[in-house]
Structure formats: C-alpha cells, structure tokens
Specification:
The chain has 12 helices and 7 strands. It is about 60% helix and about 10% strand. A hairpin with a 4-residue loop joins strand 6 and strand 7. The chain is elongated and about 140 Å long. The C terminus is likely disordered. With about 375 residues, the chain is α+β, with helices and mostly antiparallel strands. It has a 5-stranded mixed β-sheet.
C-alpha cells in the first residue's frame, strides 16, 4: 500500500515520457522518410543544390557538396536532429514536474514561517501534502507547548522569588525580637526559635526549587544500571519519610511481593518514588493511609502509590506530568513546588523503558509505575 502512494504521479511521468518519445520518433521518421528517402528526396536535393549554386558554385560542385554534406552523413544528421528535438521536447515536458518542486518548496517555506494556512499541493502529490501538513501541525504544537512551558517556568520564578520574601521576613523579625529581648521568658523564646527554624526550612526548600528549575533540561540523564532489590529500595524510602508521615498523622502501608529485583539506575529510581511519596503526602487528607503496592505480572512489575485526597479532574490528570505544572492553582506557599517532580519522574521511568500514569476518583488517587521485569532477569543471567 505504501509503495502505491504516488501511483498517479508515476503513471503521469510514464505516459508523458512515452508521449514525448513517440512524438520525437514520429517526427524523426517523417524527416527521414520525406526529406531524405521519401517522395521529397529529389525536390530537397534540387533545393540544396540551387542554394549552393547561388553561392557561386557550378552545378557539378554543388551536387558534390550536397552529396558530401547530406547524402553521406544523412544518418548522423538525422540522429543529431533527433537528439536536439528530444532534449527540447523533454525540457518543455519536464516543466510540469519542476512546478511540483516549486509547490513543495512553497510548502516548506510555510512550515518554516509557521503559516496558519494549510499546505496545498497538486493532486498527484496528495500523500506528500498530508505528510507536510502533519509535520507543520506537529511543529506548531511543539512550539506552543515549549512557549507554554517557558511561560510557566517564568511565572514560577516570579512566584518563588516573591515567596522567598515571606519566610525571610519572618526569620528576620523573630530573630530581631530574640536579639532585642535577651531576658525573654524561655517558653516564648522557644516558640520564636521554633517558628524561625520552620521558616528557615521552608526558605531552604524554595532555594532548592530554584536550583531544580535551573538544572532542568540543562543536564542529560545517563543511566547507571545495576541489579537492585525493589523491596529494599521502597522500604528504605518509607523509613526515610517516617518523620514526615508522623507529622501529618499518616500511616504508610507497604504491600510488596517478595524478591522483586530490577536492573535499573538505583539513584534515579529512588528519586522517582521520592517524588511520588512527596506528592502523595502533599495532597493526602490528614490521618489517612498511603499505600505502596508492588507486584509482578508477566514481563513487568507494577508499583502503585495510592493516597486518599481530593479527586483530580480528568483534564488536570493529562497535565500532571508536564514541566512546571502544579496542581494547586492557588500556589500554596506551604506545599507548592516547582512542578518538576512528576515531569522528572516520567522522564526517568521512560528512560528505563517503562511508563507512569495517574488515576483519580472520589475515593483515592493512584500513581502507577510499570517497569520491565523479565528482561532484567535475563540480563542478570
């Protein structure tokens, strides 16, 4: 089917080539038959002899010159005439196909200039027209997505710069109070010190987000794969998050099949689940559980991080893994991040040949990571 996309164009070229060749052959045959070997042989010969006699030649010399130039070389002359006529006719006939190239060139210019008009090519080039319009639309979508991403990034830089002032102002204010009142009661001093520490931690988080924005897309992720125990990786991460779970009165329940091993970049994969845990904690209701489930199926291992929180609308689910997209439109300064965690997680998972998706309903939200399983065991062997 693919080889027949330009059938009409090939047919047109073939017919035009046959037509030109037939016309030239017919003209050459007529010249040969009529002027040289046909009924007009004598009139043609007499005409040429007369022309030579007009150049002050006698009749015998004129006949000799005619025989030398025309009669003895009639085949060569006819061949030269045929070639010249064929080239002229072929040049004129090919002008239609050079018009095709001009139309394709105009289409390429429309792609480069991001024209809003559709590319129109002759009917014979319809498959190429479809492909060029597809490329044009894809490039436009990519430009739009890049512009939107850059705008979100710029907005976040402005927002984060503004947010930096809030904890910094609080830190300066409480430290000033502590400095100005050395005899402040211990309970009040402890309270102000605790608030300052909390604001300082938040300031550190915001600074880290600035670094995250700066690094994103400026580094190439190179995987350093090794055989790891998925059970150990997830259990270690859960232990590291224990203080955060406790602070929000969240219980993390782990349901992992025994002896699941993967051939992955351990550091990068830890970052994936670190981001998923942070996201689950940020959007979980207090005193609700977070479930981490891992099980194998055929040639894949499926890891699910489930939390109970507000349902995410379908149209927002489609944007969760975009760069600089944040679910909380109100930009909570307590939980709002740079919107890179899920985008980075998606990139890392896909580099491992897997996929990540989100599912949400009124009862829970799930982030599901699917990674190759059987292939990694083969590599181990």
């Amino acid at each position: 089917m693919k080889n027949n996309k330009y059938r009409s164009l090939k047919l047109k070229i073939m017919l035009q080539t046959i037509g030109i060749t037939s016309i030239i052959a017919f003209i050459g045959y007529c010249i040969y038959s009529v002027l040289i070997d046909g009924i007009f042989q004598e009139p043609f010969a007499n005409l040429m002899v007369s022309l030579f006699q007009n150049l002050h030649m006698d009749e015998e010399s004129a006949i000799l010159v005619y025989r030398t130039i025309f009669w003895k070389n009639k085949t060569m002359i006819l061949t030269c005439m045929f070639i010249i006529m064929y080239l002229i006719s072929f040049y004129l006939g090919m002008s239609k196909f050079t018009d095709y190239l001009d139309e394709v060139g105009k289409g390429i210019d429309m792609i480069l200039n991001d024209s809003s008009e559709l590319i129109k090519l002759p009917e014979e080039l319809q498959p190429l027209e479809v492909q060029m319009n597809t490329i044009k639309n894809n490039l436009r979508d990519q430009r739009y997505a890049a512009a939107q991403s850059e705008q979100r990034k710029n907005d976040l830089v402005v927002y984060l710069a503004h947010d930096l002032k809030t904890p910094l102002t609080s830190i300066v204010a409480y430290l000033s109070l502590l400095d100005e009142a050395p005899d402040m009661p211990l309970a009040q001093r402890a309270k102000y010190t605790g608030i300052s520490l909390e604001k300082a931690k938040r300031l550190g988080e915001l600074i880290n987000e600035f670094f995250e924005i700066t690094r994103y897309n400026l580094q190439n992720i190179t995987l350093e794969r090794q055989q790891i125990s998925l059970n150990m990786l997830l259990e270690q991460l859960v232990d590291e998050f224990y203080p955060v779970f406790k602070e929000k009165n969240i219980v993390c329940r782990v349901h992992i099949e025994e002896d699941i091993e993967l051939f992955v970049d351990a550091e990068r994969m830890a970052r994936v689940f670190d981001n998923l845990f942070r996201n689950a904690i940020s959007y979980s209701y207090e005193e609700t559980p977070i479930d981490v489930i891992a099980k194998t199926s055929d040639q894949t291992v499926r890891i699910t991080v489930r939390n109970q929180g507000k349902e995410i609308a379908e149209h927002k689910l489609n944007h969760l893994f975009e760069k600089f997209y944040r679910l909380d439109e109100a930009r909570s300064t307590n939980t709002g991040g740079a919107g890179l965690g899920l985008a980075i997680a998606k990139e890392i998972v896909e580099l491992h040949g897997g996929m990540i998706q989100a599912v949400s309903n009124e009862r829970y939200t799930e982030f599901i990571v699917t990674l190759p399983y059987m292939e990694t065991n083969n590599e181990k062997e």
